[in-house]
Amino acid sequence: MDIVIIGGGYAGVACALRLAHRARRQGTAARIRLIHPAPVLVERIRLHQAATGQGLRERRIGTLLRRSGVELVQGWAEAIDPQERAVHVGGQQFAWDRLVLAIGSRSGSDEVPGVAEHAHTLNPATAPALRERLQALPRNARVLVVGGGLTGIEAASEVAESFPRLEVSLATEGRLVDDFSPAGRDHILHVMRKLRVDVHEGVRVHSVSAARLETDSGALAFDLCVWAAGFALPPLAWDAGLRVNAHGQVLVDPQLRSVSHPWIYAAGDIAAPVLPPGQTVPMGCKSAMPMGAHVGDNLARELRGEPGEAFDYALLFYCVSLGRRDGLIQWADDEGRLTGRILTGRRGAWFKEMICRSTWWALLMESRGTKAVVWKRTGRAPQAMPRAERAPG
Ligand SMILES: Cc1cc2nc3c(=O)[nH]c(=O)nc-3n(C[C@H](O)[C@H](O)[C@H](O)COP(=O)(O)OP(=O)(O)OC[C@H]3O[C@@H](n4cnc5c(N)ncnc54)[C@H](O)[C@@H]3O)c2cc1C
Predict the structure, then answer these.
(1) What is the number of structural domains in the chain?
(2) pTM for this entry
(3) Average model confidence (pLDDT) for the chain?
(4) Domain coverage including residue 293
């Protein structure tokens, strides 16, 4: 069977490694190709560190794939042909029996005018330019971060801590981490005050121009704007005619197969699981790696002629870095609801750093055949679908 995985991020690499080792162990033949534009895995969860000039380790995908039998095809997948079961990469065409979409998402907005022209974003290709601009800004220059989610909070606190000479502010449409416990939210606000980050809540942005945001409540001036509100999805799935949600994420069934093209799986940020009421899978590397590993497991089951299993995921905690000296771990209960249990300060920062390191460690262990991408389950996932409903071929 030819299996092509597009995207060598957290989900794609976890999928490739899990599948390769299971296929080899069970003695089933599969040709696995991973299409990815670079020889390195971009640690997106550290992009705010990269943007503030912290030297990060290079994570070579080849280190992980060595001895796995997975072929790395370096390039961008430009188009998918679901009818012909082919993917086009820089003039080459690769045939597949099963395709895995693991192409992630990017920070940014296609909706608010001026973002692309006048704001910086935290993406692999744009983080170096942001770092150069931040380093070149004079004393008291105004840096405005837009977005009150975790990426905005991490970016604002990292910039404020790394560049105390700058005036940093953060604007958000609603309230900062409104879904966190009061204790969690209070801690974030406390650290923002300590780092002298000016927080503007309830600000709806209409447009961005060269030096100001136009908002519901007037203009906000800046010397540099970092856009960390919302996310955008690559159009690959939409262009191929797969069913997607309003954001462009692939709608997948509990086995993580496209609801319109069941021989195409999706994992990570690009996937939107259609799950029973009450079950949600938050976006993040915390879910991307489990989804990738689960798709790898289900493909290995397919190779043996066995039915796939439903993905079952329970949120354990959120972790937020607040610069290098502080952090917040916000725990969830068994139902996935965020509780008043938090870990803060240096211990929170240390915990978060360990979580970041553990992503690479887990992939390294997977590359050696140990199932290290593990996650908490609800125990309430639906039963595996009967064989007759599975993909043809
Ligand atoms: C600053 C920041 C901090 C974050 N912190 C956390 C955190 O603490 N915890 C957490 O859980 N999440 C965090 N996230 C979110 C997390 O990074 C993403 O949810 C995660 O990276 C998703 O993994 P993925 O494998 O789906 O996609 P990605 O990691 O984005 O990987 C997808 C890969 O696919 C490649 N690709 C895309 N299109 C194509 C194509 N056409 N052909 C070939 N390759 C392609 C891309 O180059 C990319 O490398 C953070 C994000 C940011 C920006």
Answers:
(1) 2
(2) 0.94
(3) 93
(4) 2-105+233-314
